[in-house]
Write a structure and sequence with these properties.
- By secondary structure, the chain is mainly alpha-helical.
- It has 9 helices and 2 strands; from the N terminus they run αααααββαααα.
- The protein has a two-stranded antiparallel ribbon.
- It is elongated.
Amino acid sequence: MARVSQAHLDARRRQILDGAAVCFARNGFHATSMQDVLKEVDLSAGAVYRYFSGKEELIGAIVEEVLGQVRDGFEEAARSTPPPPPDLLLSSVLGRILATKESVTVDGQPALPRLVVQVWTETLRNDRLAALLSEGYGAVGEAWTRIVEAYQDAGTLPSDVPAEHMARTMMAAAMGFLAQQALFGPAPAEILRDGVRALMSMRDAADTR
């Protein structure tokens, strides 16, 4: 029997993950069965179960992958000296994440934002996913805190506000932008960039008199 290459194995795993992501984003985790996934990826049960034991493992793999991409993007920025300003940082990281998943669509719309919202909901009842999300959120939070501390050291952000508070606020902007895409349709990351930039340049009313 011919030996299957690692490249082939990786491509098949990618095919299954992308197909499952489409199913989950379309109908949610509970309304999606493994039969739905098999139909989407056009593979036999044996071919899919070679990689994943079932739906729960598929969900976990997708969650870990998405969180890993977010974490890696912000950790890379945290290593920059100095890091890019928040408007560019948020838009560039989110833009890259969305671009890596742009081929995975549901009804012509990117599946990732809808999938993210599904994950948030599922963590309310699934302790394993909740732990994964908490770990990923904590890692991203640590990276963002280091970024804010670098801003403070450079004098571009005030030092009288805890770095963790500003980090959580900027993370909320990123999470909210993804939620908006899931609810109202896709929007380019440049919208977030421009909005954050405008808010950053806001002047006190007393200065305009």
